[in-house]
Amino acid sequence: MRILRASSLFTLLFLCVFSGQKTYSQPSKINIIQNPKFEMLLSEKRKINSSITVNDRYKVQIFYGTNEEAKKTLSVFKKEFRQLDGTIIYSNPNYKVWVGTFKTRIEAEKNYKEILKKYPTALLIRPNK
């Protein structure tokens, strides 16, 4: 009988504790707190991705070879020619380093002559043609 009293007392206490508690669900409105730097990084990524796509603009190919050498060439190029962007394109089995995105052939040739002084094997290309 003593066991029944302790058991029923425990059950009664358990019901009283949990029946008196309020239950909460998730709020229907979601509030997202975002670091402002995230939006800045996202816009930079969009710019980089748009420059990687192959389009009908002129580019200058300054290197053709292995991945490690392509990375070195691109980093050296970016230090010398800060105003021009560059990217590495994989073409089986080698890597190409393409720099610049020029709208007209005249603009491309002007920059090509400057690049040719530092990179004598550079080529003026139009990727889609």
Descriptive overview:
InterPro entries: SPOR-like_sf. Keywords: Signal. Residues 1-19 form the signal peptide. It is a single chain. The chain is of the alpha+beta class and 129 residues long. It has a domain at 56-129: Alpha-Beta Plaits (2-Layer Sandwich). The chain contains four helices and four strands; from the N terminus they run ααβαββαβ. The chain has helices at 2-19, 36-52, 67-80, 105-118; strands at residues 58-65, 86-91, 94-102, 123-125. The chain has a four-stranded antiparallel sheet with strand order 2-3-1-4, with helices on one face. Strand 2 and strand 3 (94-102) form a beta hairpin.
Tags for this model:
4 strands; signal; Alpha-Beta Plaits; alpha+beta; four-stranded antiparallel β-sheet; SPOR-like_sf; 129 residues; Sporulation protein; 20% strand; 49% helix
Helix proportion: 40-55%
Report strand %. 15-25%
Shape: rod-shaped
User: If you compute it from the alpha carbons, what radius of gyration comes out, rounded to the nearest whole angstrom?
Assistant: 32 Å
CATH topology of the domain at 56-129: Alpha-Beta Plaits
Order of helices and strands: HHEHEEHE
Question: What is the CATH C level class of the domain at 56-129, in words?
Answer: Alpha Beta
Strand arrangement, major sheet: 2-3-1-4
Task: Provide a compact summary of the structure.
The protein has 129 residues and is an alpha+beta fold.
Write the layout of secondary structure elements.
Elements: H1 2-19, H2 36-52, E1 58-65, H3 67-80, E2 86-91, E3 94-102, H4 105-118, E4 123-125
Antiparallel strand pairs: 1-3, 1-4, 2-3
